[in-house]
């Protein structure tokens, strides 16, 4: 690759980064205005959340008195979870142009020969089960995360710092 070609490639990359920064600034402002809404139990309970999944409004509709306290509590939880899913979907839709722009940008492995592909890990979804539910206890047994793409290596027991030959 010639020096002029490298300069042109770098200029293209910098233009792409500047465009991406403009997109990010616009999307951050638009995201801050998003809300998610869900209504459950025959329009008796409505919850609205903001883009950070903070409940910003809870409304009870007609005939809420027909529900018991436990039913109302469950309805609020269900509505809040559905409202959070709604705002998450809206956020994904909003961020789609940024994802498309990123897909067009060259990867580090495209620019540096032999460089391995580097990707950020996908976040682990948080459980929606109540605090003491069985689903939450599955990982609280100390086993932590489970990896499937690993290799087991037998260790040589000799030569450790506790070896008597020291």
TrEMBL record:
Region (Disordered): 118-166
Single GO molecular function: DNA binding
Biased composition (Basic and acidic residues): 148-158
SUPFAM superfamilies listed in its UniProt record: YbaB-like (SSF82607)
Name the UniProt record assigns to this protein: YbaB/EbfC family nucleoid-associated protein
Protein source organism: Nocardia gamkensis
